Amino acid sequence: MPFTPPVAEQRFVLEHVAGIADLAASERFAEATPDTIDAILEGVGQFAAGEWEPLARKGDTDGPKLTADGVRMPQGFAQAYRDYVDGGWGTVGSPVEYGGMGLPFALSTAVLETLGVANMGFALAPTLTVGAIEALAHHGTQQQQALYLPHLATGAWTGTMNLTEPQAGSDVGALRTMATPRGDGTWSVKGTKIFISFGDHDMADNIVHLVLARTPDAPAGTRGISLFLVPKYRLDAEGRPGAPNDVRVVSIEHKMGLHASPTCVLSFGDNGDCVGELIGPEHGGMRAMFTMMNNARLNVGLQGVQVAEAATQRAVAYARERVQSARASAPGAGPVAIVEHPDVRRMLVRMKAETQAIRALVYYAAGQVDRGNLGDDAARKRADLLTPLAKSHGTDIGCAVASLGVQVHGGMGYIEETGAAQHFRDARITPIYEGTNGIQAADLVGRKLGLDGGGVLAALIADMRAEAEHAALRDLIDAIEAAAAHLAGADPDDRLAGSSPFLTMCAVAVCGWLMERQGRAASGTDDFARIKRASARFYLDQLVPEALGLKPAAMASADVLYAVNAEAFAA
Amino acid sequence: MPFTPPVAEQRFVLEHVAGIADLAASERFAEATPDTIDAILEGVGQFAAGEWEPLARKGDTDGPKLTADGVRMPQGFAQAYRDYVDGGWGTVGSPVEYGGMGLPFALSTAVLETLGVANMGFALAPTLTVGAIEALAHHGTQQQQALYLPHLATGAWTGTMNLTEPQAGSDVGALRTMATPRGDGTWSVKGTKIFISFGDHDMADNIVHLVLARTPDAPAGTRGISLFLVPKYRLDAEGRPGAPNDVRVVSIEHKMGLHASPTCVLSFGDNGDCVGELIGPEHGGMRAMFTMMNNARLNVGLQGVQVAEAATQRAVAYARERVQSARASAPGAGPVAIVEHPDVRRMLVRMKAETQAIRALVYYAAGQVDRGNLGDDAARKRADLLTPLAKSHGTDIGCAVASLGVQVHGGMGYIEETGAAQHFRDARITPIYEGTNGIQAADLVGRKLGLDGGGVLAALIADMRAEAEHAALRDLIDAIEAAAAHLAGADPDDRLAGSSPFLTMCAVAVCGWLMERQGRAASGTDDFARIKRASARFYLDQLVPEALGLKPAAMASADVLYAVNAEAFAA
């Protein structure tokens, strides 16, 4: 694929949306100078294009294999991963204390985007490692941090998140994995976890499993859950990977896509000898999990950006090359590349506009995380509010753009060798994992709407309203304000019934706001500026009104959903 | 999969939407009595559930294979196909003169729906055979009809449509396959065709390839195209399959889905000995092709119904079985099946409502085809207008519903063994083949809007307006009238730029009209009536407003699409 790292776009969004110059004005992020940003964006772009993208199709067709020695990645992945570690690309956002560069999360978001545009399944490994770093940095002991963080900070060791069990998916509180004290301060972990991304592989010296489990006599449900660190290899006295722990890969799932990422069933403690350490306080697992998951959710929203960017680049390249029919407005001029046909153009401009919009949403949220880390409490809460928007809408749009990418290719899009189908298959997991998009919507109308008594949303609305000029965007902002007021007073069923359409309306409003801002900022006459202005105009004129059409659904009663009971539902 | 043939729904839609009782009042369709309809719907339901559905997953995982003797279907398919032929299921809509039952197209649509719900890829074989029957019945000589139609009418022989070549996809006029006279009235065909569904297989005694080709000195473009019949086996003096013709399967494509259907590259005349017959007049190929394609386009819209119905049934079954979390409105009542959670319910009701809506659209169009065949010219033109709506919107919704089906399954939806992913992959070709949905939209705003100077659309709008009560539906009808008036006066680029959103608006208006009608007709207190009313209400309250949100896009200028030229587009 003709992969072009979207450096100019990333730089522009970091500047005008994430506000990286303001971040660099702080002591903590003083290293985030324009030169450093350019060097990192361009460097990782070259690396990803040169080493990760060439493995993208192999990851799909060959896939990881489960052997007697554990999971083996397809040929080339281990080397490409080592080069990622050696190049320092894992360290961009990692804590300085443990060997990281400590640069803003917004910038490491751009780095991770580029890696994922090149090879989405592969980039899931660093994504999960970030979650492990967050959990340890916030909840680990000094000793745990000293032992594990230096290796995670570079990516030399990778992390996993072990939440799901067959009976405990969205309902994390139903998990049954047990941890019992071994008497020496460590714990014996026993249970089976499913859907563990990169649960095993041969690319790193160790794998740090973060495992949710119950302790003896723990209260039922989520309040009785604790977080444990279970290394694939136990550390020896020097802190190096030593004897294998009692963790077994039972199987790799046969997934529709994202084949480069081995999705494992892991069995802990088959032989009663799986040693783990408690992270944070006993029964404090949910809090630690949310620390781990919050950034992970933004990063899954970022996967939507990754796949949308990749699908768009591929579709644009095909549409510029494929010649078919004369343009209707110039029938005598002979056949043209299909990019010239209005309906194909419409699909491509939509792909561009949607991709830019979700990139803006995710980078903006990442910038709020950075501000929160600098002590700005309002920004931290705004990041909390934006996280379900970025995760859900980012992934919904990733899927939608990948689908348009198939469509632009016509019949060739359905042939696997073309590559468009892989994006379509790869994308489809993202609205599901790290909390389904329905769970995100429930989080939005359940927890996030009520933050500061509604003040967090109100402040966002006020900021948007102060800047918004486009009539449809102003209408949409009014609509989400009205819907939010309605939902705040609605009973739980009605609130949840309207939650998903409401989430989409909110996300499109934020996207529209940020697209309009970018359109204003792109005042030049170069191609980049003209495309940016066209994308912004298309988004505001055509996509914002679509979201307005969701208002009745966001405010509808749940009654219609329960007109028949479940038993009759199949009639 | 727990497949339940949707007999009650089909009967209801045939009655209240397709108006089958009116059809049965004609001499031609007098056999379409309620008893016959019931017997056929129930019979094919039992047959499909018993023999075709059990092969659905095998068709996906094993797939047809190309051998030295041609394409071999997975084990069981040949027998299941013979049983379909022997059961007479292919004859329902076939002409009486050739051994068919000659029942309404609306009824054979229901039969084909059931077969495709059970096994979508398999059901493509009969779908293509219908196209071949139509072409021969309208354009073949008496001798050609006598030789071929009795075998096609039962499905004992199958048909193919050979249009596409590597350089000629949507631009059919660019094809290069040549037919030269052999001097005995037959033609020698030479060329390569791609994307030929069921281009070869081992289920039938013969395969009737209908091939578009150019004749010597033919004018350029579509005006120089002729249609040829090329049998896999030439007929002997008794009209039986004899010597193999010079047609070779070059390869089977590796597609994302619909694996049960072998998509072949066919080479005609490698040895200069491929014998074909002209169908219709020389240079009359496009007209014959449209005859063949019009019903095929409705049948592809019907594939959207098939996959939506299958995905919905599978999702409902899973959601009723999968227990996870307490309902938010009753936290103390313990975990419930996920069908009880409002957002899951919303997805399921949406799947139901969308599926019912596109079924209504396709069956209504089929009923208009029947009326056209009875001599009602207005109905024939209305069917022409509805065909791009049914094809595009039916397939868009098939994809959307299959995607919701994956979502309802959560993580299990991404695992291939669950089956939800197969629907998602299978569906994705339908917006592409038989004329991409973009081509359908161009057909709508190009040819169909202008039928009778706009009178055909005006008559439909008048009929909808006379019956529509729901405010949003009335607004949508007004909106399509306004958009149609705008598009009629727009320049070609603007008209095409708005064509796809306009098509969706029109299709949703027709669906909303037919759903409202069904909601009124379903006055009982049984589960079927209550679900029908709930689906109708959901459709009108929540989905019709979404389509209203497309109005700005339908009426937008193409300028924004051409703000940069194609060379700059990748910037």
UniProtKB/TrEMBL annotation, chains A, B:
Pfam family, one: Acyl-CoA_dh_N
Acyl-CoA dehydrogenase/oxidase C-terminal domain mapped to chain residues: 284-444
The protein's enzyme class: oxidoreductase
Enzyme Commission number(s): 1.3.99.41
Record domain Acyl-CoA dehydrogenase/oxidase N-terminal: where: 38-155
Listed cofactors: FAD
Domain Acetyl-CoA dehydrogenase-like C-terminal as annotated: residue spans: 461-563
Keyword vocabulary terms for this entry: FAD, Flavoprotein, Oxidoreductase
InterPro entries with a match to the protein in the record: Acyl-CoA_dh-like_C_dom, Acyl-CoA_Oxase/DH_mid-dom, Acyl-CoA_Oxase/DH_mid-dom_sf, AcylCo_DH-like_C, AcylCo_DH/oxidase_C, AcylCoA_DH/ox_N, AcylCoA_DH/ox_N_sf, AcylCoA_DH/oxidase_NM_dom_sf
GO molecular function, one term: flavin adenine dinucleotide binding
Domain of life: Bacteria
UniProt domain Acyl-CoA oxidase/dehydrogenase middle: residue ranges: 161-269
Tagged with keyword Cell inner membrane: no
Catalytic activity: 3-(methylsulfanyl)propanoyl-CoA + oxidized [electron-transfer flavoprotein] + H(+) = 3-(methylsulfanyl)acryloyl-CoA + reduced [electron-transfer flavoprotein]
Family: Belongs to the acyl-CoA dehydrogenase family.
Function summary: Involved in the assimilation of dimethylsulphoniopropionate (DMSP), an important compound in the fixation of carbon in marine phytoplankton, by mediating the conversion of 3-(methylthio)propanoyl-CoA (MMPA-CoA) to 3-(methylthio)acryloyl-CoA (MTA-CoA).
The protein's name: 3-methylmercaptopropionyl-CoA dehydrogenase
Source species of the chain: Sphingomonas gilva
